[in-house]
Protein: Carboxymethylenebutenolidase
Organism: Rhodopila globiformis
Amino acid sequence: MASITIKATDGSGEFSAYVLEPKAKPAGVVVLIQEIFGVNQAMRDTAAWVADMGFIAVCPDLFWRIEPGIDLTDKTDAEWKRAFELFQTFDQAKGVEDLKATVAACRTLPGSNGKVATMGYCLGGRLAFMMAEQSDADVNVSYYGVGLDDLLGELGKVGKPLLCHIADEDEYFPAEGRAKVVSASKENPHVACHVYPKAGHAFARVNGIHWDGRSAAIANGRSAEALAAALA
């Protein structure tokens, strides 16, 4: 397994990131932002998809401050319990700082063309939304980010493309909050929201229990197009 090590900007240590490279370089870099299950097989499979599209995939271990190397699935109650414990313990502000450090490192990564995206899922979808507001990433893609309605105060700061994939039946993000995000996004030309009918949370988690092939295919196609436009 290829990996790189990135220094935290607060001087508290360093963390690892899983890396998968495409056949041809130089290439743009996609920073993949984990769910509450850590850098697991679903994220590694997503990295394989990103590399197959011709981008360098980099997936940092954002739970390293709690416990390095978390690798859970969505298949057992015990793993779900542990995942939610991690979510409740995780410092999102520190996570954004670690992501900013990752983006900076990826701009000068061997084989990189200097352009970097973020693309996150669930917790990672929320963090990708935050990165759109707080970082210089060239494009940000959010899959079923949770609680995005409490981040709308800084939506005006988004100056690069932000693509939001929203599940119409997301059990972790109430309909009222989802509607606020869709409405607010219309005020910023850099933000595009797409709602997926009859899709639940985590509809694009590879081999996940909530996988929805149709919604995932449509969302992934839109993501591929946005990545190609920003990172080529």
Observations:
- The two ends are 26 Å apart (CA to CA).
- The chain has one domain: 3-231.
- The chain has six helices and eight strands.
